[in-house]
Specification:
The protein is of the alpha+beta class. The chain is built from 7 helices and 11 strands.
Length: 226
């Protein structure tokens, strides 16, 4: 016969077991798929096609996620959290980085300013194409308590980025995100360019993946600067 303490322990173990089971993605039967849905993988990669006929789906943490290609399912199941949209607004993670000159840098140092963060790389053509527009944003807002930070994810580090920028007239802050715990992983960045807008309190309030819509970004910056 089990005493009260034994029952409590057994109940706790049962709850933990059930909780773990609920954490695992479970396939949604094909006959239960909706007629139209967004692909969670394409959305995370910035290549979303909007509503389309899903080919597969899984349920994870009581939420349904759909895919335009069944081959995307195993990748999602391997690390579901990395594919989910960020719960915005959220505090920007505290990650130590370095500037091109080797100085320590954290986004926290810009608290009190509206900050636009651009994750990019020297090998990313869409990133390169957007640099002139971002430079114009910097020039437009730099006197209005605003900061633009370009965060390079180049594995080669400062020499590669410095060489790339040598003949490009960019004068906003460039930081390197190639540490042991990169910020882009914490922010679930799956494709670049990826931009994040941070308010004066250090909260990430908006994000964009893919070719940036500069007009839309300007509207968001204007709203935060008011």
């Amino acid at each position: 016969m089990m005493n009260k303490q034994s029952w409590l322990i057994a109940g706790l173990l049962l709850n933990l077991t059930m909780g773990v089971a609920q954490e695992k993605p479970v396939d949604i039967p094909k006959n239960e798929l909706p007629k139209k849905a967004e692909c969670v993988v394409c959305e995370a990669q910035g290549s979303g096609h909007g509503l389309e006929t899903p080919k597969a789906g899984v349920r994870y943490k009581d939420q349904a996620y759909y895919f335009c290609n069944p081959k995307e399912v195993p990748e999602f199941k391997a690390n579901p959290e990395s594919w989910l949209p960020l719960p915005l607004p959220m505090a920007s993670p505290a990650v130590a980085m370095k500037t091109l000159s080797g100085e320590p840098f954290k986004l926290e140092s810009l608290r009190g300013k509206v900050v636009l963060v651009d994750f990019w790389a020297t090998w990313c053509k869409p990133c390169i194409d957007s640099l002139p527009s971002l430079q114009k944003l910097h020039e437009k807002y730099q006197s209005q308590n605003f900061a633009l930070v370009g965060i390079s994810i180049d594995e080669e580090g400062a020499p590669k980025v410095q060489s790339f920028l040598k003949n490009r007239p960019l004068n906003y802050l460039i930081a390197l995100d190639n540490g042991s715990e990169p910020l882009f992983e914490k922010l679930r960045v799956k494709a670049i360019p990826a931009l994040f807008l941070i308010d004066r309190q250090g909260q990430i309030v908006r994000q964009w993946t893919g070719k940036p819509d500069i007009k839309q970004i300007e509207k968001e910056i204007d709203a935060l600067l008011k």
